[in-house]
Design goal:
By secondary structure, the protein is an alpha/beta fold. It has helices at about 10-20, 45-60, 70-80, 95, 130-140, 150, 175-185, 190, 215-225, 235-240, 260-265, 305-320, 335-345; strands at about 35-40, 60-70, 85-90, 105-120, 130, 165-170, 210, 225-230, 245, 255, 290-295. An 8-stranded mixed beta sheet has the order 2-1-3-11-4-8-6-7. Strands 5-9-10 form a 3-stranded mixed beta sheet. Belongs to the PstS family.
């Protein structure tokens, strides 16, 4: 039986007992471990890596292997049943869900900001980018850092006469989905051009370059003077890359801080299917590009012990794991979302 207790130690002890009772033993009497295989989003990968390592260290007999290959890759693996769970920043759309034999249980686990990190070594003041400016950059219409559309939001700042190099994702990416969902919400031209997707047709230009996963985009920005790209906040923070303050729906320039990300999430109600989007949050202090990120689980597992181990791991992440979210640059789930996700675990058997 699944234990839903407030104290992680008790839940972990219960899991260890369940594993001992359900797993087969070797001839020497040792318990075989349960391995949970997952793949998908790179957006939450640093946090998931920490969670899974700490959980495996705390619970004897459970090992978790997670490969960050991008949301699209994780969804593909999940559809093909080559993993026990997957992760995506784009959840799954109806067409994708329809391809999964047995269906899917979507569980938001954390949230984070997609930031515009840049490489302008001589710029001392935080860069401010209006909606006109950052949409124009990613449409390929603004190609120099001293463009008037950028300069008018940065009074007194000496902007370099330097070409803008845009770094995009090379893989099928939930981060790209979140970013293009926002750009399409604020710009009809972007919506009718590149549009929304895990992969989109960016402008054809030698100043648009592709790199794989969040860490690849981060490294490329860091190595390329004049570069700008979209990555998860924690990657930019760890790499010590500056991040632009973006114009919000309320017309204010907002920094990608934890509090401003929380302000964006505050107005979101979680629906029954757990797919909640906020492409353009309205609160005055809301950072404009924030998203939940999801685990994808099957409703039915042939191995009962594996199903129980997966659910206990998720419970640990929803409770003990949330304590490290902010430290890693992510937004801890609101209490009402933790409660809703915990209840949704009844759908997994």
């Amino acid at each position: 039986m699944l234990c839903r207790l407030a104290f992680p130690f008790v839940a972990i002890t219960a899991l260890a007992a369940a594993i001992a009772g359900c797993s087969s033993s070797t001839s020497s009497g040792s318990v075989e471990s349960i391995k949970l295989q997952g793949s998908g989003a790179s957006f939450p990968a640093p946090l998931y890596g920490r969670w899974f390592k700490e959980y495996s260290g705390a619970v004897n007999g459970v090992r978790i292997d997670y490969q960050a290959k991008g949301s699209g890759g994780g969804i593909k693996d999940f559809i093909e049943h080559t993993v026990d769970f997957a992760a995506s920043d784009a959840a799954m759309n109806d067409e994708e869900i329809g391809q999964v034999d047995g269906g899917v249980v979507l569980l938001p686990m954390t949230a984070g900001s997609v930031v515009l990190a840049y490489n302008l070594p001589k710029l001392k003041s935080p860069l401010k980018l209006s909606r006109e400016a950052y949409v124009g950059i990613f449409l390929g219409k603004i190609s120099s850092w001293d463009d008037a559309a950028i300069a008018k939001s940065n009074d007194g700042v000496e902007l370099p006469k330097l070409p803008i190099t845009v770094v995009q994702r090379a893989d099928s990416s939930g981060t790209t989905f979140v970013f293009t969902n926002h750009l399409s919400a604020v710009s009809e031209e972007f919506k009718n051009g590149p549009g929304v997707g895990k992969s989109v047709n960016w402008p054809s230009s030698d100043k648009f370059i592709a790199a794989p996963k969040n860490d690849g985009v981060t490294a490329t920005i860091k190595q390329t003077p004049g570069a700008i790209g979209y990555i998860e906040f924690g990657f930019a923070d760890q790499a010590k890359l500056p991040m632009a303050n973006l114009e919000s729906k309320a017309g204010k320039f907002v920094s990608p801080s934890l509090d401003n990300a929380k302000a964006a999430l505050a107005g979101v109600e979680m629906p029954a299917d757990m797919r909640a989007w906020l492409p353009d949050p309205e609160a005055d202090s809301a950072y404009p590009i924030v998203s939940y990120t999801w685990l994808l689980c099957y409703p039915k597992y042939e191995d009962t012990a594996k199903a129980d181990a997966l659910k206990e791991m998720i419970i640990w992440c929803l409770n003990e794991g949330q304590n490290s979210s902010a430290e890693m640059g992510y937004v801890p789930l609101p209490a009402n979302v933790v409660e809703a996700v915990t209840a949704k675990l009844d759908s997994i058997q």
